TrEMBL record:
One MF annotation (Gene Ontology) recorded for this entry: ATP hydrolysis activity
Gene Ontology annotations for the cellular component aspect, listed alphabetically: cytoplasm
Start and end residues of each stretch annotated as Disordered: 947-969
Lineage: Eukaryota, Metazoa, Chordata, Craniata, Vertebrata
InterPro entries: ATPase_dyneun-rel_AAA, P-loop_NTPase, VWA8, VWF_A, vWFA_dom_sf
GO process terms (BP): notochord development
Top-rank taxon: Eukaryota
Protein name: von Willebrand factor A domain containing 8
Coiled coil: none
Sequence ranges assigned to domain VWFA in this UniProt record: 1109-1291
Amino acid sequence: LYYLRLFTNLQLLLVNIPNKLPQYSNNNCFFSKIHTNCHFQLGVQLLQLAHSPPNTRGPPEQLLQLAHSLRNTSDPTAQSLASSLSTRQLLRICRRFSHYPEESVAHAVHKACLSRFLPSLAQGSLEKSLEKCSILETPGRDEHNHDYTCSVKDGVLTIGNISAPVYSPDEKIKVPDVLFYDNPQHLMVMEDMLKDFLLGEHMLLVGNQGVGKNKIVDRFLHLLNRPREYLQLHRDTTVQTLTLQPSVRDGIITYEDSPLVKAVKMGHILVIDEADKAPTNVTCILKALVESGEMILADGRRIISAETRPNSIIMHPDFRMVVLANRPGFPFLGNDFFGFFLPPAPRAELEMLKSYGPDVPDATLQKLVAAFGELRSMADQGTITYPYSTREVVNIVKHLQRFPNEGLANVVRNVFDFDSYNKNVREVLIEALHKHGIPIGAKPTSVNLAKEFPLPQVTMTGYWKMNQSGDVRRKLLCPTETRPIDVKGPVFLRVQSYPCNRQESRALSFTEEKSHWQIPLNEVNIICDTHRNVVYVATCNPVSLFSMKERGDTINYMDLYDVFPRTISGVWQPFVTIAVLGGPLEGQVVLQEEQVTYIHIHENTHNTAVKHDQPVSGISNWWSSKEQQGGYKMCTEFAHKNWLLFHKENGNKLEVLDVLEGRVHSISVPINLKSVFLVAEDRWLLLESDTNRKFLLTKPLQMAPGDSEVCQLHAIDEESVSKGYGVASAEVFVPHMVSCGQLPNENLSAALDQKIVSPNRIMADTGCYAQVVVGFPDLISENEVYSCKRPVDLSAMNSRSRSVAKRQNCISLLSANQVVRVLPPADVPLKEIYPKDVTPPMAAGYLEVTDLNSKKVRYIPVPRSMRVSPYTKWLSKVSETNVLLAPLGSGGVVTVDMGGYVRVWETGLDNLQRSLMEWRNMIGTEDGRPLQITIQRDSDLDVTAPKHGKVDPNNDPHVGGNQWAGGTGGRDTAGLGGKGGPYRLDAGHKVYQVSQAEKDAVPEEVKRAAREMGEKAFKERLREINMSDYDANSYERFSNAVRRQVQSLRIILDSLQAKGKERQWLKNQAVGDLDDAKIIDGLTGEKAIYKRRGELEPELGSPQQKPKRLRVLADVSGSMYRFNGVDGRLERSMEAVCMVMEALENYEHKFKYDVIGHSGDGYDIDLVSADKVPKNNKERLKVLKTMHAHSQFCMSGDFTLEATESSIRELSREEADEHFVVVLSDANLERYGIRPERFANVLTADPQVHAFAIFIGSLGNQAERLQKTLPAGRSFVAMDTKQIPQILQQIFTSTMLSSA
């Protein structure tokens, strides 16, 4: 009821004004103004009645502004949201703000609008409206940073910060008692519920089935000690059955009060389940009871909330209603009952699953949480239709707890068996499960570990002796100077986050590779370093930094292009090294460039970065010199203790940077340095540049500023074993790697095959797999050198110079007793690894794993990246291979290739054995899935020559023989399961398979003849459709690129619902013709027993009576061809059209589509006609060729507006369930003077036709800028074809609200 005083003597009473007034020809403007003013002024009046304290006056004003903007917008999607912010809803929100002013306005709006379940376009429209009204999202509560507890003490329940008295009921038997494991997220939900409960509000929980709605409500009532009445609705529920409950007593049917009436009388909590299944007229009755506190029963009684009337039921003050409903839409078919309830967050869900399965391994639980989390996300995006919930995960964990030997893969498969009948859905589900390491389809015997080769015997090859004569010792004292750091900064840098699409690598077989993911790189060179479970990757073209956790879901990116100095000539090729600090500087890294030698410390806190610049002494304006100077190197072995060592190649100074103390200690040495190895904190191994002679420098652990000449340099004499002690010098080797720690005693004993306890260091060079120096770096006695020599020195295996590369890619894993290095394929014995008939894989390099425990060496291929940087000369300076290596954990390594692929490997034998056992346990002891009965037998018959065979007109099954085509288990003819036939031919019969040994025994000439005949048949098939081999390969290139997207789009098409309104009988009406099916209901007092004709929205999930109409407007203008080499926009457009044509094949009953091109030649270039869509690959390829050729030879110009206007006008005249126009275009509209306002007006010209723009090409940020100026939800940016299925899903579901 609305009351408005317009003039002094005129008062107007408006009753039940709808959101959309009828369009009166003369008074449209008048009624529109009345409607707006009524909403606004009544809202102000009611909000003032809320008695909000002064500190909460801001939120009501913001809410009113938002509601007013939504009600007056021309966007139908935004208008549909206005009903969620009705005056009653605004009043309810403000009442809550008056008690809890710390809450977020944006969060309250999202809850009221139920944004979690809105289509993506409606979510975008809401976000845009919130931004216009300056309602910003504040950081949400983190259940892990907030101490959420639940306790009952002295009759008071406390959840979080909210307390309430515990009820003392009369009927304790009705208080629910349920098995429940508390977790922070559920406690956070119950805290919110308790707030509303104390305010006297009824509650609504909506979410996917199985997320725990009933469990949380029962737990909540159990804590409050409140009795519960339960009522479950369904689509046959009527108002009568809602209030009366039939029962049989002594053979007589009697009607007694339903749980609803009992709860109202007794003050119990009424839990109404499956509210979305009931007819809308039933839920409207419940809504009236909640809002007005009154309800008329079928027997004439009336529920009232206040004064007593005859034949009335007084509502008990303790009565509350809790309504539960599933999310709206397919596959949860019901009414449009909206609400909001989410499944637990991953960490909370993991804690809960641990309670249900305490004996299930944590790794298994983590895989389940990650996999089902992604499946829910895919359901929200429309990629799959069923949102797998926590209920399924809990049941899986319970099963594994009870039957631990059955295997995770078999148990999970039981959940997805129903969806396995749909091929597209099955492939999507299996891919998602494989991504998170659930090995569905794998066999316990599918173990593909690298082949092992025996190592040569470890022998003693020499001695190291420290020269400590008196004269030499005095000459090798090293002076030391100390100076403070000159810090520059800080400079705050932007940190960008990208999703990490991490893939488990052990889905179908067990290998050394654990997982892999890709970082967003474009033609850059990279170096990598790791720290614990964090992987850091630095790039040098341009200089930037990536950081990611091994099991994280986010990649952080920091662009440092403007921080490092740039050169005018452009010849500078930076080389960056990473050092990861520790202790109080945990999470900070130092980046050092060898020429500039600037130190950058980045602190990844609150998405900021701090820079401190400190040039090493002796460098100034190096870029003004024409000659390339020697670079500085940084030693990072003890970076975790916050000190670093810098030295210049061929220099004679060591710079020790103490990051924590802020000082630099400069040590002068009497030799020219080639390399430095920090073998201990106080002992460093130095190599002289010209002679490769070794020296050991000793220093105090702590250097004071006043200390000088405290460092001593000791020369190391290398003696040979064969010549005897002190007779002749041993062969001098140049180590590539020296460990900074020692092997454990058991590993040292295993490596040398003798019981020994001694200090030691492990080394590697080009001539040895590994070397162990026993006693080093002790100065007391000579050190014994044990070597495991290579048959051929690496430097002699390839003519390339090995001194050029700056990364040796060699590391030691001391706990695993291994040396791991990356070798190019030319340095690996491929002939010994792979059989003669097996072609080695295309590898970027091989991990050579030398295991000193087992005395074995393995070569693990690292897959070659699909993208390789064109800067090959620059790459050769970084590394000999396209792969860089770093240790990760105790028994693993991480590699990064030049294409940006990060791969995590397990090399330690103990870790591999443990992981293999866990992997086999996940598969289970048996597969248990006989998908096909295969009978193997030996035919004892020889093959002659391949042939097609006779065609049986009756299509009878033929087993064996060589006469009929389509037989099984035979020979020579086309069929299945046989041998010697030219090609496969499936006639639909049971397959009898000959053994693999018999197939292998077919003579080579018969195999060759069969192969030639198969190729000939394939070419004949191509000729039938007039398609050459080149054409087939060309089309496959486009088809393979979108195959995964076609599957996703078809799943989306399967879930589309009818939208067109139809005139039909409207039942459950209060007036109209008597419904014969409701006569009995009328005798019992039911009022809604009539029916009448009218237009009604189709039920959710009902089949379409008419196909939807889709027109794709493809941009084939000259700019698409011109800039295709820049961003691939033309190929992306062709892939999108290919995807639409393939996905809509055999969907003519759902979609009628055509493809129209527009360019400078016109706006109606017919590419695909609606009445003649392509039926085979040849016809689809012709469309793609036409697009490419037209964009190459057309005139310049743009007819995007004209094409869109014409298409909207044409489609509006056609009959269809819905009309869609999708404009595929680049964002190059400014060049032709097309303003975004004009384009926006064209897209929204006809409300009957839903028009959208997808920008697939952009120079710079053209597309983003254009998208911001267009109406919310009308434009999208897709720089990757993978995004288009989700965009189309958003487009097809955009009418869910606007058409209501």
